[in-house]
Specification:
Structural class: alpha/beta
Shape: elongated
Number of strands: 10
Largest sheet: 6 strands, mixed
Radius of gyration: 28 Å
Helix content: 25-40%
Order of helices and strands: HHEEHEEEEEEEE
Distance between the termini: 65 Å
Length: 194
């Protein structure tokens, strides 16, 4: 009798179909890599503009790239300015521009467990003289919708501006734009926009 009851329950339950449909609609967030590629595309446009407007850089001439600074404080920058400057190195090199690295110490400093280092920002460790023909300088200004970037190529021999270019970095591809939001009647400033 017990086996018949168990068989009957199994037969009845086998006819039941369990449907679990958990659909949650999430907004699509593009992968970070595509935003990084968009950032670099804007950097390439900026470098194309600055190089198109200046005399051809000869192989005997060199370019140094400085850190792109905050327009409101010319001795300060942030992650955006540093990354923009680093990306400009790659963009210029891809076009055959002869670059110099002003932060190169000329020595290899090895720290066990940390790595090997050859760059520095300490003036005492840097070369006293460098042969630089042109210097790229620039600034950025943030707005609600992104960052406005202006760069200039300066010929050091006479401090002449030989080329200038402007580019806008929308906030969604310039992730280090400070974000300001209202919370309980006050303003909160985030250092990194999500």
């Amino acid at each position: 009798m017990r086996y018949c009851l168990i068989g009957l329950i199994i037969a009845l339950l086998s006819g039941c179909e369990m449907i679990t449909d958990h659909r949650i609609e999430y907004t699509y967030i593009p992968p970070k890599e595509s935003k990084d590629n968009q950032f670099y595309s804007v950097v390439l446009r900026l470098s194309d503009r600055i190089l198109a407007n200046m005399p051809k850089v000869r192989s005997s001439q060199t370019v140094a790239i400085t850190t792109i600074v905050n327009l409101d404080k010319l001795d300060a920058t942030d992650g955006f300015g540093r990354q923009l400057s680093e990306s400009m190195f790659a963009a210029f090199e891809s076009q055959g521009v002869h670059l110099v690295e002003p932060r190169l110490t000329g020595n290899l400093h090895t720290v066990p467990g940390a790595g090997e280092f050859a760059l520095s920002r300490e003036a005492s460790k840097l070369a006293n003289r460098m042969h630089i023909t042109y210097m790229l300088v620039g600034s950025y200004q943030s707005s609600r919708s992104g960052l406005h970037v202006n760069v200039r190529m300066i010929r050091l021999s006479d401090r002449a501006v030989v080329s200038a270019a402007y580019e806008f970095f929308p906030a969604d591809i310039a992730p280090l734009v400070p974000a300001v939001r209202a919370v309980n009647g006050g303003l909160i400033r985030d250092d990194i926009r999500p």
